[in-house]
Amino acid sequence: FTYETFFKGRKQEGSGEAIHLAASRGHVEIVELLLNRTAFVDSCVSRDLAPHYDVLHAAVFSEGHGGKLEVVRFLLERKATIGKNLDGKTPLHLAFQTGACKLIPLLQEEMEKSAWQWESELPSPLEMGITFGRMSQAQLSMTAPKTPESMRVFIHHDPDCIPRFLDHVDDAADGVSCKHLARHLQEPDLARLFCEAPDSAVALINAVTAEPECESVGWHPLPSRVSFAPHNGIDRVREWLNSPGPGDYLYAFYEHDIMWKYDQAEFTYPEWHKMLDWNRGRPRRDVDVRVCHVPNLINPAFFSSLMQASDVDDSLSFFSSRVVRGSIDYTFWTGACKVDLMQFCFSLWSLALLLTESWILVQVSDKFQPKDGEEDPNRRRLPEISVSRDFIGAKGLLDLVHEIVQILGCVAIGRWKDYLNLGNLWDLLRCFLLMALKINTGNRLVHVCVVFIYWCRLLEAITFAEKIASALLPITSLVRGLVPAFLVTLIGFLAFTHGVYVAEDTRREPKDAVFRSFRSLITAGLPESPPEDSLKLALTYISTILFTIFFLNIFIGVIGEQYTLEKQRCKRTFQKMRAASCLTFLLRVKVLCCNLMGKRSAEAVLLLSVLVSMGVQVLGLMRGGSLPYTGVTFFLLQVVMFLAAYQNPDAPWTGQNASKPYFLWLATPTGLGS
Q1: pTM, full prediction
Q2: Contact 190, 201 (CB under 8 A)
Q3: Which residue from 610, 599, 606, 590 is spatially nearest to 647, judged by alpha carbons?
Q4: Please, which residues have CB within 8 angstroms of residue 384's CB and are 6 or more apart in sequence?
Q5: Which residue of 96, 293, 352, 549 is surrounded by the most CB atoms within 10 Å?
Q6: CA distance 29 to 648
Q7: Is residue 164 situated within a structural domain?
């Protein structure tokens, strides 16, 4: 037979044989008859005089409907070879393209027998199956080859298939396990998956976290029972501030080992194994020890994807994953906690300076009273000692340097756009406001803004105390839920203000009209006598009733509902807050040098810098003004303090350690224990 068709905008001619028609329409008896009558199984349909596809292609494609299993099996039994058509597609490509699920295992088995070598130029059969949309997610998951390539195809093209695919891999009896797939996952894979499909990412990360192999089960088995009692005084303070519940206990380690090692010749094991001891005291728990087989899981891209995923999944359910919790827990307590604690202490320090200066100025307020003929003191510039101005201005400049370092960290991981969000832009604005206190001396507006900034920072910076933050978060998170109710109230307020303004015979200043409306609507302050104008009287009654009954009840209902919702997920919200802190920390250590000195030496330098700063401040307060070059001195001392807080040469993200493979180990309770 011959045919004419239009392909890619041009006319094409071709020809074929009867066996191609018989195979494409599923007539196995006719195919067998033709093969017995001198037809060839490898004969090809031509396109523009060039061989295009063979009989097996025709049987699988079946004119776009997907072929019959009997015909394809018969052709393979008759030694039909698997090859490519002119478009580079194999029969397996066509099976995925047409959704012929029954043919896929048969063709995969035949291609494995022939040791078929795939070429990377053409999309894989699985990718083609996703693109053409003939197969359901369950079918794609069941028929996908159990290889790392399939995992990456699902990550990039259809991540919702991943949970079923992982179940299929786990149930398979051919020796391919999820932890083998994990070794081939690339660093951006998990980050991309968390951004697009958090539930699938959690399924993947949980599936590749398995019980480790034990080098010596007899001499050094995996611990089955562990004490979660504090190791030292710092751990006791940490436990008191966080008050973990029965299900919150967790040990997280980040080590080079992927096996539970034991040297049978020396009878020794890694030092960190001693942390999983059960003899220290209560609370003790039965534990499940697992290792995540994804290397170098803790990185800025991973935490950045967690923050993006929190915008996709409002329930924040993925923060309940023990792997996610473990990565946050390790990163925070190993590095980010010290920097956050420094920020919190600086907020208290700055507030103490502002309050001390205010108290001193009250004691000497007679010096600032205006003389006869002078302007109103409310319009004069604020008197000041300038110690707090120099210290806070220097801190604003240091915060700006921090933000620049964070931007460079985003650039270093190739995700500079991640910095462009409202939170980071607000941080930048705060830097300039703090510096403005030094530059724009005595400005009341700047002074008031700085005061509010530091008081609000006390609520933002409590990432090290879950006990306190969990009580505050449901309240501080109410603003998000109140935005719609506030908009409705604002529109109502503006509408009635405008209506009353128009109804008045005499026009007042707009600001006076707004003030009167605010007094009557928001505070329910009705005039002493009713207006004589009936229209204005009606508007007054209607607006007052609406604002005191309708809008007030809206706010009460929304506040109650939103508080309950935030209370239910406050643990996950707190994990999100800590993850944001870890992201900021990891982005900055990507740029900063964190191995200038040892950890203990850095702590000594930090303490010395604090004492010198306090000494300079005391001298300035005693003499009623700053010493020369105090601002520069404060800035240099603050730089030393924060650099010291980042120093930890043994941390996995420091220096040469960052290039070595690390694996996350977790020990989580399985029961209540004693």
Answers
A1: 0.82
A2: yes
A3: 599
A4: 357, 361, 441, 442
A5: 96
A6: 76
A7: no
DSSP state of 650: T
Residue 178 banded pLDDT, cuts 50, 70, 90: low
Asked if 333 and 434 sit in the same domain, the reply is yes
CA of residue 437 relative to chain centroid, distance: 34
Residue 224 belongs to a domain = no
Going by the DSSP 8-state scheme, the letter that residue 171 receives in this structure is: H
**26 shares its domain with 110:** yes
| Cα dihedral across residues 566, 568, 570, 575: positive or negative | negative
Contact indicator for 189, 220 with CB cutoff of 8 Å: no
Domain span holding position 538: 478-568
List Cα–Cα distances, 152 to 294, 358, 566, in angstroms.
14, 61, 36
Both 31 and 66 in a single domain? Answer: yes
CA distance 155 to 118: 20
Site of tokens 């303070």: 237
Q: What is the pLDDT of residues 301-355, one digit of tens each?
A: 899 999 888 887 777 888 888 999 999 999 999 989 999 999 999 999 999 988 8
Question: How many other C-beta atoms are found inside a 10 Å radius of the C-beta of residue 630?
Answer: 21
Question: Are both 395 and 495 inside the same structural domain?
Answer: no
CA angle 624, 619, 452 (to 5 degrees): 65
**What single string gives the DSSP state of each residue in 596-609?**
SS-HHHHHHHHHHH
Domain membership of residue 172 (yes or no) is no
pLDDT (average), residues 29-36: 90
Q: What is the DSSP string of 466-525?
A: HHHHHHHHHHHTHHHHHHHHHHHHHHHHHHHHHHHHHH-SS---HHHHHHHHHHHHTS--
Query: Do 133 and 140 touch, CB atoms closer than 8 A?
Result: no
**Could you read off the pLDDT of 449-464 as tens digits, one per residue?**
888 888 888 877 678 8
Instruction: Map residue 300 onto helix, strand or coil.
Output: helix
Residue 553 phi, psi (nearest 5): -70, -35
Do 1 and 103 have their domain in common?
Answer: yes
